[in-house]
Amino acid sequence: MNGVTTGAQRVATIFRRELASYFNTPLASVFLVIFLFLSGLFTFNIGGLYDRGQADLRPFFQFLPWLFLFLVPAISMRLWAEERRTGTIELLVTLPFTVVDLVIGKFLAAWAFACVAIILSAPLWFTVAWLGTPDHGVVVASYVASMLMAGAFLAVGGCLSALTKNQVIAFVLCVVACFLLLITGLPAVQDYVAGWSPREVAEALASMSALFHFDSILRGVLDLRDVLYFTSVIVGGLACNALIIQWRKAD
Amino acid sequence: MPQTPTTDQRTPGAPLIIAHGLDKRFGAIHAVRGIDLTVRSGEVLGFLGPNGAGKSTTMRMLTGFLEPTAGSVTLDGIALDRDPLGAKRTFGYLPEGAPGYPDMRVEEFLRFIGRARGFTGDALRKAVDVVVDRVNLGAVRRQTIETLSKGFKRRVGLAQALIHNPRILILDEPTDGLDPNQKHEVRELIRHLGSDRSVVLSTHILEEVEAVCTRAVIINRGEIVFDGTPNEMDSRAPRSVDRNRLDHVFRALTTKDTADEASRRVARSLGVAVKEGSR
After folding, report:
1. What was the ipTM of the complex prediction?
2. Which of A:101-120 have CB within 8 Å of B?
């Protein structure tokens, strides 16, 4: 009996297995605990949530990209490197899946996991809502921005993980790539670049930065351009990922 | 125990695997050199050869894991390069080393493979139960794969290849790491399965060829150097050899060259050396 499967079924099969693998291992619990602990630390001790006397979640969201810088590569590094190391990639590729099924299924599972972590910070939101009257629209937009940013980092990291069977290399490459996406959006870096290059170059560089678009959404407006930026990084990352797997299945 | 016909009496059926001019280069290394192979239903083909002869590379091209540099593969009438998804549905594959996800339980892993093969709900449960029973995994079905012995791991690999009852089975060293009892069980299973499908298995154990295969193909340096029944292989050995006759034939085909071939090879290598020296 040979069951014919639809694309959605195949992606769902990969998604389920991937997501289960986070919870089969201590990865999920370790990740969630550390994420919540560090985000709390940043929000209260460094961001000074209480001291500011303002009912908003800016201290939390402001530090999130820098937390993602190390935590998202920790999720993405194993996406493909692990399959290569254990040889299970040979199984995946010779089962009736297309490379696109595999790439999308794995990405969606990793993204869903990251979104769960982000959503688990909601008690912070409830606390602020209880203490004062935050602008809930801004909070919702900020949550969307955080999820988009996590997705963009994961797509980039998945791509880099496909290049190697060594998870440490995949981690380091992803941290560097995400770091570049972040620092080009820092005002200090922009000023520095503007000091010796035409204004257009500095602006172009800033508009390619994840931090620039993230901050823009954090101000409270979910601009189509910012959403488009993150979705194009995600789609571009996944497309590269599929090409790498297609060309270098067996290496 | 199913009644199995003696190997040479079987009449082969429809061709299920057709490989034509399969060729694979890895940079400067020419791993597989234009292999033609047709495997019919009812054939159990033992794929033999020294390490590095190109066995795994050939099997990886048959299953679509490696793209051939040249040549084509047709599986149960479906061209692998035109309809990879359709072609992949026709076979079950045990890759070299029987890879599996260490953190998954045996049952969970087989359910994943079953889903990938299009089973859902009750049909999925049933398919897993049948295959667990078939390869005797009942005792370990709730264990994680990383806790299994080498023999059980290999059987999990076999189970995942069998779950959809495919017409084509491609098994890279299915009995490697098994103890003699397990080897016997797996051979019985393969012989039983082979009666109405095509099985290609690679092995280093020549007695296995006599025990389960209807056909033996020996590959050396990427080329087929023998293709025939185990009896024909046996008859290649000189009368004087009365023990390990297949070993003798295997060695003769994969190590010694005929005088002609040897001198040609020497000439060729000298020619290359001269050319390289003059550059």
Report:
1. 0.89
2. none
